[in-house]
Amino acid sequence: MSGDTEAITVLISPVVAAQGFDLEEVIVHRSGDRSVVRILVDRDNGAELDVLADLSREISDVVDNAPEPILGALAYTLEVTSPGVDRPLTAPRHWRRAHGRKVIVQIAAAGSPDAPTEKVAGRIGRLNDDETSVDVVLTHGGRSDVRPVELADVASAVVQVDFGGPSADERELCGLPEKNVRGNT
To answer: Which residues of 76-92 are buried (b: 16+ CB within 10 A; e: fewer)?
Structure first.
């Protein structure tokens, strides 16, 4: 983490948390005499554009009024955004927030990080109570079943774009309500 990135992270973390968000990432990209500061935030149930705009103003005020200039004399562009669909699932909260979405998971052999991985494609079901495993609902030949996956064994996981939405079986096995499911309007 660069000095600017670390300083901005420390400075804005309380502001982000006070608004009920998790600070997912701070990226500072310098280009000539300008910088782009990209702040990725997320929270359960997402964020509306108005809320992100308000948060952006608060973050800008904090950075502009820091006791010591963080970016030196450089002008900067601030981008406050939520993670995109293709963002990797790396923490239990990411799995919880993607509940019901399609996912591709690379599973490493338990205890062997260098061992080949198994690829599983399905829909994210329930995260267990202690947030150490998640159910992935697999559908083959019109039949759906649940595969528990230990989060510690996940080598990588990425949400997929889903235009069709879950079937009735997938909704039931994922523990989703009948209506207003993401991707199923």
So the answer is: bebebebbeeebebeeb
